[in-house]
Prior knowledge:
Layout: H1 12-43, H2 49-52, E1 55-57, E2 64-66, E3 68-71, H3 75-79, H4 82-94, E4 99-101, H5 109-118, E5 125-130, H6 144-158, E6 163-169, H7 177-189, E7 193-199, H8 203-215, E8 223-225, H9 234-239, E9 248-249, H10 269-276, H11 278-297, H12 301-310, E10 318-320, H13 325-332, H14 334-341, H15 348-357, H16 364-368
Parallel strand pairs: 3-4, 3-10, 4-5, 5-6, 6-7, 7-8, 8-9
Antiparallel strand pairs: 1-2
Helix pairs in contact: 4-5, 4-13, 6-7, 7-8, 12-14
Amino acid sequence: VHPPPPINNVSSRAKCNHLFKAHNSCEREREREREKQANKQRTAPLLKAAERHLCVNMGKSGLRVSCLGLGTWVTFGSQISDEMAENLMAIAYENGVNLFDTAEVYKVYISLVTHCVLFRRSSFVITTKIYWGGQAETERGLSRKHIIEGLRGSLSRLQLDYVDIVFANRNDVNSPMEEIVRAMTFVINQGMAMYWGTSRWSAMEIMEAYSVARQFNLIPPVCEQAEYHYFQRDKVEVQLPELYHKIGQTPSYSDGVPECSRAAMKGYQWLKERVNSEDGRRQLVKIKELHLVADRLGCTAAQLAIAWCLRSEGVSSVLLGVSTTEQLLENLGALRVLSFLFFSSSSYINISIDALLGNKPHSKKELRS
Length: 369
């Protein structure tokens, strides 16, 4: 910063103006320096090299995905600014996250386009989901028409040539399974997607899709995106165990409901009502007890919950929903917890958590024994 010119022969008001301008100039320089330092801290990798490269195969496919993925439901485009979204994606990418989950109704387009410019497209995985599009009958569901048009619309908004995985977001009882599988095979053959998967499908529906694909020499789904957390365990741990060696899973994880969360946002009253319900209040009591378990282990409750999800044999990746850099960095730290907590299913930590939750599901084989 250059010093202001001499002011000995000017009026008092002029002196004040010169001093004020010089002060503002120094403040601006200091602010720019603080921003540079903050940017360095934001982009500096939090995890060690081995933790950043902790990747697994998605089901039986050869696609390698990070154990943690970044979801964009609600937060991107609605709850946070585009600048914050870009920061979150950059931090996640620098810390080894290569899986970014979107949908045809998610508002993440500007952030993802910017991200694709910053990093090689071939170095990360983008997914999208098809079902809910517009208000017209032909703009939702899993008809061949909507699968093709919905995916084209997503690619146009994302300004991408292809997505890595396109999910059928819940099954459509109005569309024949053969039509769904043929449409997914078509978009893959056209280069619009590399793989397809299911989201919130039952084990029976997934097996039907597999049977149709094998019968007609079509492409089967490679993964199922399911809701999985402390209080939603049956599907991942009991209903789908026979599919573990055929199809991977990418559970969605969400930790807590603070005032700034999606449950407090307009249009998501149903989520707040779920938390405030009788079952929700009972679950919050157990979550408080799990906080004590996390404290004894030297980690946060969120890190414990994410690591707990990753311990499951059939889980390929856990999707995170975050709105701040602090929350993202905290959640990424779950990989450190995983590295020394869950060495086996008989771990005393797992046993303690199961006893606290009191909802461990049992397979028919376990019940017979």
